[in-house]
């Protein structure tokens, strides 16, 4: 279509473009309408109007019938509000209607006279006559084809023009006329657009903002800096712009070569020539002096409580009128008991334009107003900022405050205090220590970009290898979670080498992070090298945490090499040590050890403990990592839909803290979980969000889970051949992550068996069988192994033995959904073996579980098997009986099935126990059962 390039240019505005196109299409059909596009300055209102004009002037390729308006381009009329013409009556209408001057002569005399006075420059017509004349003129103009009228910056239109256009816009429903308004949100609401649908423009999201930045920079962005620097720069620009496309373009145009290369820090404010920055400055300068001081105070401090504002107002003579003026300016946001600047874009613009004296006055006022003991670090900083000179005494006080905040888990406070202490410190070594502490705490608080910016201040002396290694280790941790694990791997290995001789415990921790990065990127050769280096560290008398890390690395390395007996021993020891550690990272690694063994109960318990520990400590990346592992354990150890909670919590946290790698892992796990249930729409939604990120960041593990999900959907939709083809794809086209490929073997075996390829299925099963046959394997993988053996068995007796053991192991593992899948496969085997009565028992059990989880495709397969097993209506006798119960009987039956006693049910329903007993006897009779056990089986 001709307008597709338009959609590509306007990123993140698909909903708005669709609304505009629908308005234009209705106008082409002779059913006009109006739309008011409302949004903040710089958010893209004018761009949408321009897009509408381009779309309207495109000649549609198909003309339906003679005289039809379909296919015709619009005649376009437009006007723009100008501040200098706001007081000029009908100035905007004059500009809009001038192209139609020739049509005026064909109007009735009253209308002709009213419009002539407008076009001649002497407006004296009665408003109603003029307004109806505008309607008549637009209708006449539309006789030869549809008409688009647009009005930009409506907030600056004169009152008469706005009222006339809005009057006409509300009356074009039977005319081929579309009317579009664009109005800026803010203090000056024109108020004349009542009755016209408003399309409110929100700021662009992060992905759309990145695309706008890429368009603005073109090849300069890709060619001028490496991946990490490019990511830092893009995130900083996107965050500063606050979703305003105009701000993104202004910032992009002003980037220096040093900023593009990563040698210079990113911009901290809009360029001086920016129209948005000028707008904020004008709003600020229009305020009275007291209101300006209040606004700058808010710009100097992220959030001001009401008590602080009151103290500052009393001390500086800021009156109620000043507070009202500041509130009405649109520069501040009043939230409950406090006040803050509207957004970072406004804050940075105001601070950049403030003079040195204005900034010092704001700092001095805050230093006097922040009197509470808990405000002491901020008070110290503002005192130091007044002088602007280094002060080691104040720096030491700030460092003490930072250390106390860190001990309390208040990383959002501690990193700022460390940063301010570092800025006031004269000694280079101490300053470097404090910047490192600030970066580490900023990272722990979830501010990855701020941590990277602080690391740029770390400049170790020539032979200071420890500081350099610590900085490299933190860069690697940030890159592994927020960027590319492959890029993080050499950083973390270098950090470990730099620390090995001085602090082997810290070196081991860096190697653990390197191993995780290697696994996430699918580089298992590097994993083996990392594990070997860890084993060579000189670690005298290792503590439980240290032994846990060493055992985990050695166990996973042994599993990669196929030495499953050794792997089970080392991983079992690591999982057992999880109870002896409180560090959330160590707890997460213990959970991963239990996961590798297939011990679902231990893995879930350890992962939940790690999540709780991370939350108590306030460490956001540790919590995100623990949630990622908790979701993976739940999803892959047979407990859908439980991972929804852990993954959604983790996804929200990862997005908020910009941990893109963790977010991609959560999307992959959620996609796989939905695919297990056969929920195609949900799975595909997560896969769409995963696709670009996984490729861009090299996330092989997440990509492998994402590749597994469509095969699960194929199995749920009874397309085993498609599932087998997907799972058997070689290399990067399929499951390019060996552990994920191993975990997917039961699905591959099932798909191949169902397509009659038993020999291929047997070969595919061999590595999985070796893993599960080894010591230490948990009930979950052994249950899947038994199911595979049952599918591969040649004789019915052998198959039944494996199926029965698989069901027992599923129950032991608590893997309810996999139990249902095994029941379905067992029932299918029995039906094919001409044992329909035995088959129906297993198929009904599978159906109940699938229905409980809302797994519609699997439930459909179970029903089809039941029908094939000759169940007819009799198979659903019990279900029909439940449906035939009275509401009271059904309620009592459900409570009894859940385990409530007669007395408990009576107390809950305000009935007597004897009445409950009477109802239950009737329920049993109607359902043809004799015990509560049978009732629980039926209803659950």
Task: Please tell me about this protein's structure.
The protein is mostly helical and 940 residues long. Helices cover 68% and strands 4% of the residues. It has 51 helices and eight strands. Strands 2-3-4-1-5 form a five-stranded parallel beta sheet, sandwiched between helices. Helix 29 runs antiparallel to helix 30 (564-577), helix 36 (680-697) runs antiparallel to helix 37 (700-716) and helix 48 crosses helix 50. The chain is globular and about 100 Å long. It starts with a helix and ends with a helix.
User: Helix amount, in percent?
Assistant: 55-70%
Q: Give the biggest sheet.
A: 5 strands, parallel
Cross-sheet strand order for the largest sheet: 2-3-4-1-5
Bin the strand percentage. Answer: under 5%
The N- and C-terminal alpha carbons lie at a distance of 53 Å
- The number of helical elements comes to 51
Catalogue the unreliable spans.
Answer: 1-8, 62-69, 872-878
Shape, principal axes of CA atoms: globular
Instruction: Count all strands and give the number.
Output: 8
Could you report the average pLDDT, rounded to the nearest whole number?
87
- As a whole number of angstroms, the C-alpha radius of gyration is 34 Å
Query: What is the SS-derived class?
Result: mainly alpha
List keywords for this structure.
940 residues, mainly alpha, 3-stranded antiparallel beta sheet, 51 helices, globular, disordered N terminus
């Amino acid at each position: 279509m001709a307008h597709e390039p338009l959609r590509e240019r306007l990123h993140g505005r698909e909903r708005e473009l669709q609304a505009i196109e629908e308005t234009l299409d209705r106008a082409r059909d002779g059913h006009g309408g109006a739309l008011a596009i409302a949004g903040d300055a710089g958010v893209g209102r004018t761009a949408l109007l321009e897009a509408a004009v381009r779309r309207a002037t495109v000649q549609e390729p198909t003309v339906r019938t003679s005289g039809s308006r379909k296919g015709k381009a619009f005649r376009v009329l437009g006007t723009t509000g100008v501040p200098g013409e706001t007081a000029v009556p009908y100035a905007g209408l004059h500009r809009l209607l001038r192209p139609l001057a020739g049509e005026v002569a064909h109007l009735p005399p009253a209308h002709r006279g009213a419009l002539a006075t407008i076009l001649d420059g002497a407006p004296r017509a009665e408003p109603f006559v003029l307004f109806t004349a505008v309607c008549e003129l637009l209708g006449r103009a539309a006789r030869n084809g549809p008409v688009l009228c647009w009005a930009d910056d409506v907030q600056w239109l004169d009152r008469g023009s706005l009222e006339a256009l809005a009057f006409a816009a509300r009356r074009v429903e039977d005319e081929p006329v579309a009317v579009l308004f664009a109005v800026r949100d803010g203090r000056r609401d024109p108020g004349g657009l009542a009755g016209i649908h408003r399309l409110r423009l929100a700021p662009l999201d992060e992905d759309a903002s990145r695309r706008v930045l890429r368009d603005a920079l073109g090849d300069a962005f890709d060619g001028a800096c490496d991946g990490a620097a490019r990511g830092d720069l893009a995130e900083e620009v996107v965050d500063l712009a606050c979703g305003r496309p105009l701000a993104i373009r202004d910032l992009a145009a002003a980037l220096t070569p040093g900023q593009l290369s990563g040698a210079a820090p990113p911009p901290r404010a809009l360029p001086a020539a920016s129209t948005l920055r000028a707008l904020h400055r004008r709003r600020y300068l229009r305020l009275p002096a007291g209101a300006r001081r209040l606004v700058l105070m808010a710009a100097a401090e992220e959030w001001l409580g009401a008590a602080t504002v009151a103290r500052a107002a009393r001390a500086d003579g800021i009156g109620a009128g000043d507070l009202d003026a500041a509130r009405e300016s649109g520069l501040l946001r009043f939230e409950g008991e406090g006040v803050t600047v509207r957004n970072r874009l406004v804050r940075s613009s105001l601070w950049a334009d403030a003079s040195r004296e204005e900034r010092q006055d704001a700092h001095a006022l805050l230093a006097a107003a922040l009197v509470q003991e808990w405000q002491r670090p901020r008070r110290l900083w503002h005192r130091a900022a007044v002088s602007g000179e280094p002060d080691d005494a104040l720096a030491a006080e700030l460092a003490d405050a930072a250390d106390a905040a860190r001990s309390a888990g208040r990383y959002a406070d501690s990193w700022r205090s460390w940063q301010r202490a570092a800025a006031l410190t004269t000694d280079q070594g101490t300053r470097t220590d404090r910047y490192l502490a600030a970066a580490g705490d900023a990272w722990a608080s979830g501010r990855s970009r701020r941590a990277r910016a602080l690391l740029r201040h770390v400049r170790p002396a020539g032979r200071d290898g420890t500081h350099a290694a610590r900085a490299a280790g933190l860069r690697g941790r940030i890159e592994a979670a927020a960027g590319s694990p492959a890029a993080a791997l050499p950083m973390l290995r270098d950090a470990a080498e730099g620390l090995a001789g001085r602090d082997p415990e810290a070196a081991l921790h860096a190697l653990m992070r390197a191993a995780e990065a290697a696994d996430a990127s699918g580089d298992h050769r590097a994993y083996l090298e990392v594990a070997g280096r860890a084993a060579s560290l000189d670690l005298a008398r290792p503590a439980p945490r240290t032994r846990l890390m060493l055992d985990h690395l050695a166990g996973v390395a042994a599993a990669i090499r196929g030495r499953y007996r050794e792997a089970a021993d080392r991983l079992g020891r690591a999982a057992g040590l999880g109870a002896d550690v409180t560090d959330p990272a160590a707890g997460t690694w213990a959970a991963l050890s239990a996961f590798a063994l297939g011990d679902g109960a231990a893995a879930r318990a350890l992962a939940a403990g790690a999540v709780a520990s991370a939350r108590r400590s306030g460490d956001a990346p540790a919590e995100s990592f623990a949630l990622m592992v908790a979701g993976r354990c739940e999803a892959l150890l047979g407990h859908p839909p439980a991972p929804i909670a852990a993954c959604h919590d983790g996804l929200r946290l990862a997005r908020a803290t910009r941990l893109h790698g963790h977010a991609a892992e959560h999307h992959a796990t959620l996609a796989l979980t939905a695919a297990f249930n056969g929920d195609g729409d949900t799975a595909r939604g997560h896969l769409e969000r995963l696709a670009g990120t996984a490729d861009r960041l090299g996330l092989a593990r997440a990509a492998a889970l994402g590749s597994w999900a469509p095969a699960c959907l194929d199995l749920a939709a009874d397309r085993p051949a498609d599932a087998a083809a997907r799972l058997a794809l070689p290399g990067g086209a399929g499951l390019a992550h060996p552990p994920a490929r191993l975990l997917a073997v039961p699905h591959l075996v099932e798909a191949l068996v169902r397509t009659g390829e038993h020999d291929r299925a047997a070969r595919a099963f061999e590595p999985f069988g070796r893993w599960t046959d080894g010591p230490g394997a948990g009930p979950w993988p052994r249950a899947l192994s038994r199911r595979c053996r049952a599918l591969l068995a040649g004789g019915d007796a052998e198959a039944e033995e494996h199926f029965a053991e698989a069901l027992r192991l599923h129950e032991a593992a608590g893997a309810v959904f996999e139990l249902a899948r095994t029941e379905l496969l067992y029932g299918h085997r029995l039906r094919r073996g001409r044992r329909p009565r035995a088959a129906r028992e297993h198929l009904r059990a599978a159906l109940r579980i699938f229905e409980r989880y809302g797994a519609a495709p699997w439930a459909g397969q179970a029903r089809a098997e039941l029908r094939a097993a000759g169940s007819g209506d009799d198979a659903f006798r019990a279900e029909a009986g439940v449906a035939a119960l009275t509401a009271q009987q059904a309620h009592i039956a459900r409570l009894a099935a859940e385990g409530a006693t007669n007395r408990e049910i009576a107390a809950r329903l305000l009935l007597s126990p004897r009445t409950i007993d009477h109802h239950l006897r009737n329920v049993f009779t109607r359902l043809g059962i004799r015990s509560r056990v049978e009732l629980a089986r039926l209803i659950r």
